[in-house]
Amino acid sequence: xxxxxxxxxxxxxxxxxxxxxxxxxxxxxxxxxxxxxxxxxxxxxxxxxxxxxxxxxxxxxxxxxxxxxxxxxxxxxxxxxxxxxxxxxxxxxxxxxxxxxxxxxxxxxxxxxxxxxxxxxxxxxxxxxxxxxxxxxxxxxxxxxxxxxxxxxxxxxxxxxxxxxxxxxxxxxxxxxxxxxxxxxxxxxxxxxxxxxxxxxxxxxxxxxxxxxxxxxxxxxxxxxxxxxxx
Length: 231
Known about the structure:
The protein contains 5 helices and 13 strands. By secondary structure, the protein is of the alpha+beta class.
């Protein structure tokens, strides 16, 4: 799948003279990017708690590590950080900002073609944002994702011998397909009316990673699962 991890502003800025932060809790901001998207006839975005948690954690890391980059200390980008928190959606975008306040950062982003291209991407459905104040500077992390599955639930049964995946599929004309490694699995249950689906795979048959998606000129990945990673 192309453009799995969209980013903007890839560079390092030393945050010399960093000090212990006086305030590092997220604060409320007007969702200016939703208003901006709507002014171009695009959909507004819905808050995703896991994206928010991922963004907040990275804003803290940027401040405490004295480095400003789309790659974290483990050389991982936004998608990998999101997966490490338990996320599964395959398409993730990120923009970063540093400035005296959110309004100034917003203006900087709007003046950048690369950042505007990410903000205006019509594929996004959800967002999460994180903030960290340090040395009179605001670190602002804004994440985006596209979600093809609603009400998603996955994990292990009580006995620990079966991995399951459940959800509501949002692509009405293309049924879900699950690759367990290189093996294709049909849904254990599928309701065309409600679009609810489920999969059940025995541990002995379970691969290290699974890909959910659909066929459209080849297999298009919507979600990636690492069942043993967070077990």
